[in-house]
Amino acid sequence: MTTYGDLVAAYLAAPTPATLADLRGAVRSAPNFTPDLAAEKVGRPLLDRGAYAEAVTALRALMPGAMMSPSAHSALAEALTGAGHADAARREESLARAALAGILSTGDGTAARPWSVLRVSDEYDVLRALGRRSRRQKVDRVGGRDLDRHECEDGTELVFDVTALLPRA
């Protein structure tokens, strides 16, 4: 039986479209997966008051559905650091970077090659990583795909494929 850990290890060892697809498929199938994940809302209040052990517990409870979320892994790394678990924090930081790299590997952020995301928060993780802020957001149906277009404050447009996130009528 293949575990989430096996899939993560396979992706980290060989970050290919196939290993990413396998890992993302498993995450989407997790019983607690939601495209509306709000790891920051769960972890930030605890982190801000220094309740690191509580934050670790709360953020780990989001797994495996939050797996490959850059913000979830970053928040967990921060909590683990605060709780004095440096090695575990470094692993989570590595997973946060791998999650972001995974998203960026799926396209180039244009309408022709939009980035594929597991959840809406992933879009904002990418925007933050690129130093961009969304001024306007609009979802368009184009060629059988749902594209979430972010018009950024600097005038650029970044596009994400959110087809798998939206329910079909």
Structure, described:
The protein has 169 residues and is α+β, with helices and mostly antiparallel strands. It has two domains: 4-104, Alpha Horseshoe (Serine Threonine Protein Phosphatase 5, Tetratricopeptide repeat), CATH 1.25.40; 115-165. It has seven helices and four strands, in the order H-H-H-H-H-H-E-H-E-E-E. A four-stranded mixed β-sheet has the order 1-4-3-2, with helices on one face. The protein is globular, with a radius of gyration of 16 Å. The mean pLDDT is 95.
Look at the helices and sheets and give the structural class.
Answer: alpha+beta
Please state the second-level CATH architecture of the largest domain: Alpha Horseshoe
What name does CATH use for the topology of the largest domain?
Serine Threonine Protein Phosphatase 5, Tetratricopeptide repeat
CATH level 1 class label of the largest domain: Mainly Alpha
Largest sheet: 4 strands, mixed
Q: Write the H/E string, N to C.
A: HHHHHHEHEEE
Q: What is the terminal-to-terminal distance?
A: 34 Å
Instruction: Please mark out the parts with pLDDT under 50 across 5 or more consecutive residues, or reply none.
Output: none
Question: What are the key terms here?
Answer:
169 residues, alpha+beta, Serine Threonine Protein Phosphatase 5, Tetratricopeptide repeat, 2 domains, 4-stranded mixed sheet, 4 strands
